[in-house]
Each structure stands twice: as C-alpha cells, then as structure tokens.
Amino acid sequence: MNRQLAVEPLEDRRLLSMGPPLLAASLPYPPASTIIYEEHFENGPGGYTPDNSGGTMQGLWHYSLGRRGDGLPGHTPNHNWYYGLFETARGFGRYDVAPFDHQGTLTSPVLPSIPFRGKTTLFFNYFLETRGEPDRDFAEVRIVINGVQSTILSRADNGLRETNGQWLPASYKLDAFAGKTFQLQFFFNTADPPRFDPEGWYVDDVVIVNEPDPISGYKWDDQDHDGVWDSGEPGLNGWTIYLDRNGNNKWDQDQGEESFVTRNDGQHDGAYWFADLPAGKYTVREVLKEGWKQSYPAESVTPPFEHVVTIDPSAGVRVNGGWEKTEPPNFGNFEPDISGYKWDDRIADGVWDADGADNVAGTPDDEEGLNGWIIYIDQ
User: Fold this and answer.
1) Same domain, 106 and 143
2) Which among 296, 289, 291 has a CA at the least distance from the CA of 229?
3) Burial class (CB in 10 A: 0-12, 13-18, 19+), 210
4) Using alpha carbons only, what angle is made at residue 63 by residues 61 and 66, rounded to the nearest 5 degrees?
5) What are the φ/ψ torsions at residue 26 (nearest 5 degrees)?
6) pLDDT > 90: what percent of the chain?
7) Measured between alpha carbons, how far is 37 from 35 in angstroms, rounded to an integer?
8) Helix/strand/coil (H, E, C) string of 231-255?
9) Which of 181, 51, 63 is nearest to 113 (CA)?
C-alpha cells in the first residue's frame, strides 16, 4: 500500500517528528512510501507481549481501551497499550510510585526485515506523562536483534518528550539495521521515587514505512527468453547497472558515471538502487556480460536496451521496478545455448579487430558486427 503524503526531510536517525499531533492515517510518511508493517491494535493486541517483572512490585503494561473517547487528534480509537492503572475512555489513569518501584517491557512480535533499498522509518503515536526528574520514570524504545537490545529513543535524552496532555508522533530511521529481522520493545521503569501519580505511557499506531530510492529495480534471468518476468524466474547478482550520463551507450567509469552491482536487498536477488539523485532525466543501462543476451528492454524498443526515466524525489516522483514485474527500470537477460557474432573482417585475416586502437596511426580499423545475416544449425 503506497501513500502519497507530505513530510519534512528526514535527516538524522534520532527523533524526527515532534510537531503538532497527527492522526495515524496522516502520520508524516515520506512521499511515495510503502508501508511494510502496520499495527493499530484495533483487532487485538497485535502479538505484543508484556513482561511486568523486574521491579519490586508488578509492572503495569496492558492492552487497553483507555483514552478511546478523549477527543484528541493523533491516535486511532479504540485500543492501545498502556502503562498505568484505572484509565477511562477520557484518560485520567495513573501509576502508583510508592512505596515500591515497578517496571515493565512491552515486546512486539518479530517484524519484517529492514530493506537495504531506500530509507526505512519507524513511526508511532504516544501519550506520555511522568514526573519531571530525569533520574526516574525511564521510558525507552529499543530494537532487539538476536537478543541484543539497542535503545533508539528515550525520555532521558529527550528522544521521548512529555506530550503535555496531547498525543504526539515519534519516528526513528532504521537504516542502520538493514537486512535484519528484529523486535521492538517499549520499556518503562519508575525507579524508586516519592509518591506522585502521573498518568503514564500510552503507545498506539506502530507503523514502519520504506521511502524508495529515486531509481531502483531488479535484474532477472529470463529463462524462457520471452522478455517477460515470469513467476519463479530468479534475480541475478553481480551485474553492473549504470547511469549513462553522456548517452554513448557504454559505462564510462573513468568519467564518474554512477553504477551499482546487483545484489540481494534483504528480500530478493538481483536488486540495484541509486540514492540521493536530484530531479531530472536519466538513462539507465546495463553492462552486458559475455555470452548473455538482453531480452528486456529489448532491441526493438526505442531507444533500444535502455530505460529513460524522469524523477523528482522531492515531489515523490520515483521510478522503482517491482519484483517479478516487467516494468522499468528492470532488466531481463538470458544465456542462449549457442551464441556468437557476425563481423566484417575488413582485412581478411580471420581476427576480429575491435580493440579501439588504430594499427596504423590515423587509420581507423575497428571491424564492426554485421546485421541481417542468417545463421543456422545444419543437423
């Protein structure tokens, strides 16, 4: 599901969105983003599990109907997760802090792998009311990979601010965890303070989105040679895709033409992507490997063997080829059983001279291929 929504530029991996409260349906997703995970807790707890051990008394995370009628923007009714007690439809819950400390950890199910391609961001809506002292009421959001915890947002370093009676969106860029499956944790610990009963912490509308790169696609093995990416045809790693800046139909590495060697993107083989490109028109081509033929885009299209694409990333205009989609800017190739070339042997020596150098200075002697000849198998 793609959503075309405006947003301020994403800059740093810390908290990015702390502006006016937003409805979950209008979280500040980047333009043309794809939602890769979404949980609003309306149909159940979403597979999240609370662990309320670790403190002197039992912690308070639980699946809640609290604040379902608070009339505030910035969250979806009717359910959420809440660290606190005695909540009503309009709020007014609290958590006890005396005479003992308590804590709890809310853990998500295992979430989809973070793509290598594009920029992936976690968003969620929250309501937070604690005491003001920074050495108590610790609220943290963590990433857990293979049992190892990494804190990505916390109240202690102002990554999770008090929301002052409102719901606010929070966000964090996840690109550092690309290629990994992970879990989210929401951790709260009161420490051991004097009596005062703040409302606590609500969490709702957990969404992970991927903002695609300006140009991206796949290279596939067209096993039936038909120029159509059929289901089951694999991606091909190790091929060079480049931006033909000067339009000479070859990769000018020495002139700095951008290139990418196809690889696995965390989900599929054969992926390539070009990031941080300004708006404009680009010609995308491949470096053909010896013994292979290109079937998509084919020689019959104009211009042949290349994709000409126009992008404007700031306006959400990107060109992204999908997996098993015969569409720009994907490339299809096949390896014929028997293949070769027909050339014009101008000097009749039986050797194809195509090295780009003149054997006699000032006398071009490169020999060209010949089209229109019939090659056949005499069985």
Assistant:
1) yes
2) 296
3) buried
4) 100
5) -125, 30
6) 67
7) 6
8) CCCCECCCCEEEECCCCCCCCCHHH
9) 181
Assess whether the previous peptide bond of 50 is cis (omega < 30° from 0).
no
* Domain ranges, residue 74: 2-211
Q: What angle is formed at CA 204 by the lines to CA 200 and CA 205, rounded to 5 degrees?
A: 160
**What is the number of other CB atoms lying within 10 angstroms of the CB of residue 85?**
15
- Residue pair 136/78 in contact (Cβ under 8 Å)? The answer is no
Model confidence pLDDT, tens digit, residues 111-163:
999 989 899 999 999 999 998 887 889 999 999 999 999 999 999 989 999 99
Judged by average pLDDT, the poorest of 101-105, 248-252, 372-376 is 372-376
Say if CB 295 and CB 332 are below 8 A apart: yes
Residue range 303-330: mean pLDDT, rounded: 94
| Per-residue pLDDT at 360 | 57
- Average pLDDT of span 221-234: 97
Instruction: Say which amino acid occupies 82.
Output: Y
- Residues with Cβ within 8 Å of 299's Cβ and at least 6 positions away in sequence, in order, are 305
Q: What is the pTM of this model?
A: 0.73
Quote the CA–CA distance of 2 and 217 in Å, as a whole number. 17
**With left for phi above 0 and alpha for psi between -120 and 50, is residue 362 left, alpha or beta?**
left
Specify the DSSP class assigned to residue 175. G
Residues β-bridged to residue 59: none
The phi, psi pair for 122, rounded to 5°, reads -90, 135
Instruction: Answer yes or no: do 257 and 301 share one domain.
Output: yes
CB 265 within 8 A of CB 213: no
What does pLDDT average to over the chain?
87
Looking at the fold, whether 242 and 143 belong to one and the same domain comes out as no
Which DSSP category does 312 fall into?
B
Those residues with Cβ within 8 angstroms of residue 375's Cβ, 6 or more apart along the chain or in another chain:
340, 342
pLDDT of 357 strictly over 80 = no
What is the total count of domains within the chain? Answer: 3
pLDDT at 16: 36
- With 70 as the cut, is the pLDDT of residue 19 above it? no
- Mean pLDDT over 266-272 rounds to 92
Cα–Cα distance, 31 to 307 (Å, whole number)? 23
State the Cα–Cα distance between residues 205 and 80, nearest whole angstrom: 8
Q: Please check whether residues 154 and 226 belong to one and the same domain.
A: no
| DSSP reduced 3-state for 155 | coil
Same domain, yes or no, for 59 and 28?
A: yes
Taking each continuous run of H as one helix and of E as one strand, the counts in the chain are 0, 21
